[in-house]
Amino acid sequence: MGGVQTIFSEISIGETESGWMAEKKMIGYRVQVDANKKLIISLDGPERGDFDLYVKYGEDVSRYNWDFKMITSSADETLTIGPTKEGTYYIMVYSYRGSGDFTLSTKVPSEVVELSYGQQAQGNLNGSKEASYYLLNAKNGERLILDLTGPLDADFDLYVRRGERPTNLKYDFKSTSGRSKENITIDSTKKGDYHIMVYSYRGRGEFSISASSGLKASSLIISSKTNLLDKYGASGLSLIERRIENYITASNAAGLPATLVYVDDAASLSPHGLSPVNPKKASEIKGLVDDLEKRLTPNHFLILGGHFIIPFHVLSNPCGDDGDLEVPSDNPYASRDEDVLIPERSLGRLPDDNSNDPEFFAALLETATSRIKRAKSSSFGYSANVWKRASEHVYETIEHGDDLRLSPPMINVDLEPDWLNRIGYFYFNLHGSEETRHWYGQIRNNYPVAFSPEKLDGAVVENAVVCSEACYGANIIEKVADEAISLAFLSKKVACFVGSTKIAYGPSVPPATDADLIVQKFYEHVKDGLTFGEAFLKAKVDFARETIRMSGYLDKTGEKTLLEFVMFADPSLRLEEIE
Predict the structure, then answer these.
(1) Whether residue 409 has a cis bond before it, omega within 30° of 0
(2) What are phi and psi of 574, to 5 degrees?
(3) Which residues contact 418 (CB under 8 A, 6 or more apart)?
(4) What does the alpha-carbon distance between residue 367 and residue 382 come to, in Å, rounded to a whole number?
(5) How far is it, in rounded angstroms, from Cα 144 to Cα 271?
(6) Is residue 560 within a helix (H) or strand (E), and if so which, with residue range?
(7) Strand order in the sheet with 155-162
(8) Does residue 2 surpass a pLDDT of 70?
(9) What does the angle CA 352 – CA 358 – CA 362 come to, to the nearest 5 degrees?
(10) pLDDT digits over 147-176, tens only?
């Protein structure tokens, strides 16, 4: 970062290293660990500082390339990793705020290894009558499946006991088939610790043990039954649920199992051993999403509904009061911890509009049910004249056919409907407003209306990918389709819309930064064939890395850009280009 390569000093298990670090600096370490251990890394920093820990297995770690991290507002951090892989773990101590002395220590305690849902551990038994022990903390009503796979020429057994370590004589559950492939299924757990023993009745060798709920999902669908019912009534909810069922059927048929979870419905959550949360509190929903990921390990997360159904996280504006005090964002839902700038999940949202008519939302669900999204590689680009050079640089990523159009001289009334028909990629870099439904051009102090929702009335834009850098381009809160161009595009069956919920930033000339850069990266990944969710996730990660590479740090406009850009699309879909 900043062009300076981090040097990683060796630290041994059980060793404590001390040092001094200035603000915004970093110091690296590396530690060798055996497989199937619990590694505890402890950082003790200055009283008034804020130091953070980042860890990566097998390669250099940075703030934007890590496997594990611990970030709080304190300078004291503790990170626990387990079961470990055999090899090198790279550790970075970073001073987010303040400077001063610190100590870093590592240890591997002699105790059982903790397992969690969706996790697999590797182990080795060196001979008959040896055992390895594991621990899993369960909640009430969870389904727990334990699978053991050992050597073909040995006989390994599996024992489980709640609250105490089992033996081959004292246990609550066992699997002893005479082979080394064993399974224990507990249909409904009780709250507490489940102790697990892998025991060699005969033979030696390596084994693996995994814990799961047995429930898998390629896509996790998240919505609120209470809020849908309150907004649309029983008949509207019934229509929406039929469309959701059709979507799940189509997704399953495509080999992408989908699971619907209502965040406020006990019947929906009980199979996963979880309880309902308040559907109006984004923080509670995020916590539930974190728990669901551990149980279902989905590849994609799809939010169904707008701000009234599943609320955006309303975050403080990193830029202060630039006209926006707060920023609506989906980033926390896409993040696994409190550091919400850089997402870690493939996530999208299919929003409803502000009307009480369910037809708009039902139509969006029907559009998503069509799993194949094919469109021509042709493009339409439209920019404020003042940003001509910067926009041309971004537009090159998708340009196929017509040149970038500028406003002025072009204005809204000049647009021909045929120019929008059967386009695969739309790019807009125009002004937007929170108060009006238009997007605007600019040259000097002239801001003509450049694009309005009604321009899409007769347009054929099905399956297109649309990106807008307009301020408030994805602001849908309390708006209907003819009040927001993003919703107007979705009503015309585009496959994906990416835009900003608040004031967006961008340069007037290359190189691409802020909104220009995140849109450019998204287009690159979509054209490489990634799903929309993967492309959006990688675009934000690339944005952070590229910004750090260019300027040495992530500034406040960069932070806001990461938070405010959202994606309205099924994250599991991808665009297939046709001629």
Answers:
(1) yes
(2) -140, 160
(3) none
(4) 26
(5) 11
(6) helix 556-564
(7) 113-115, 131-138, 192-202, 155-162, 173-175
(8) no
(9) 75
(10) 999 999 999 999 999 999 888 889 999 999
With 60 as the cut, is the pLDDT of residue 532 above it?
yes
Structure pTM?
Answer: 0.74
Q: What phi and psi, each to the nearest 5 degrees, are found at residue 446? A: -100, 120
CA distance 413 to 417: 10
Q: Strand pairing partners for 46?
A: none
CB 348 within 8 A of CB 568: yes
Between CA 258 and CA 244 the distance in angstroms is 10
The residues near 500 (Cβ < 8 Å, ≥ 6 apart) are 468, 469, 470, 471, 472, 473, 474, 475, 515, 561, 564, 565, 566
pLDDT one-digit tens code per residue, 240-278: 999 999 999 999 988 889 999 999 999 999 888 889 999
Domains of the chain: residue spans and CATH: 8-107 (2.60.120.380), 113-212 (2.60.120.380), 350-354+372-578 (3.40.50.1460)
Q: What is residue 4's predicted lDDT score, i.e. its pLDDT?
A: 55
Please give the share of the chain, as a percent, with pLDDT higher than 70. 98
**Checking phi first, is residue 154 left (phi over 0); if not, alpha (psi -120 to 50) or beta?**
beta
Can you read off the two tokens belonging to residue 308? 């009234």
pLDDT of 1 above 70: no
3-state secondary structure 101-132: EEEEEEECCCCCEEECCCEEEEEEECCCCCEE
1 vs 96, residue with greater confidence: 96
